[in-house]
Amino acid sequence: MGYSAAVLGEKDLTMGQEALGKLISTAKFPILSANVLKSDRKPLALPSTLLEIKGHRIAILGLTGMPLQPVPGFMVLDPLEMGKSYVKELKRQADVIIILAHTGEEIAKKLGEEEGVDLVVGGGVAGQNPSPFWNEANSSLTVIAEVPTPGHAGRMVGFARLLINSKGVITQYEWQSIALTPSFPDDPAILELIRRYSP
């Protein structure tokens, strides 16, 4: 599907170290989390990845929310504190900083307040999909791309279009949360894949 990166959610940790490690190592795109450690205190995944798009150096940082209960085999550090720490480092490496934050709306908005952060794409938010939040102080945008509800998976797609000036600052944005209704045509390659695995 052309992913550039993904972030681990706290419920992903219930898969266990072995299964999750295999998933991360075989994915064709980076699966990120800057604040999840294995039981040996080593990082489970890459904290961030760097891309170059249309002349801009773009850093994508991943942060996982705190589980309601401890998950055996993992240690989850405070996403807000870890986010602040990594942003300071990434500001020296990138023109644009995007945070994938499966942390809930409150922490996602706080991450967007950090100097140098341009876009926070949040997930793990209960209830209805909130409106995008534009932070005037540092020209950052926070959007919630995923709201867990029964039957939600794969039924909505978030679409953001950003206008970024030569200094790497967002000057204009467009955000839509699009429902994938039957009116969208099926992708032929995906249909063929489904047929191959269907009885």
Walk me through what this model shows.
The chain is an alpha/beta fold and 199 residues long. It has a single domain, classed as Metallo-dependent phosphatases (Purple Acid Phosphatase, chain A, domain 2, 4-Layer Sandwich). The chain is built from four helices and twelve strands, in the order βαβββββαβαβββββα. The chain has helices at residues 17-26, 79-90, 105-112, 188-197; strands spanning 6-7, 31-32, 36-38, 48-53, 56-64, 74-76, 96-102, 119-122, 133-135, 140-144, 156-164, 170-179. It has a six-stranded mixed sheet, with helices on one face. A two-stranded parallel ribbon has the order 1-2. The protein has a two-stranded antiparallel sheet with strand order 3-6. α2 (79-90) runs parallel beside α3 (105-112). The longest helix has 12 residues, at 79-90. It is globular, with a radius of gyration of 17 Å. The chain starts with 5 loop residues before the first strand and ends with a helix. 31% of the residues are buried. The mean pLDDT is 89.
What is the molecular shape?
Answer: globular
- Total domains: 1
Give the strand content: 25-35%
Strand order of the largest sheet: 4-5-7-8-10-9
CATH class: Alpha Beta
What is the typical, i.e. mean, pLDDT? 89
Largest sheet: 6 strands, mixed
Number of strands: 12
How does the helix and strand content classify structurally?
alpha/beta
Taking Cα atoms only, what radius of gyration do you get, to the nearest Å?
17 Å
Sketch the topology as an H/E string, one letter per element. Answer: EHEEEEEHEHEEEEEH
CATH architectural name: 4-Layer Sandwich
Low-confidence stretches: none
N-to-C CA distance: 24 Å
Q: How many alpha or pi helices? A: 4
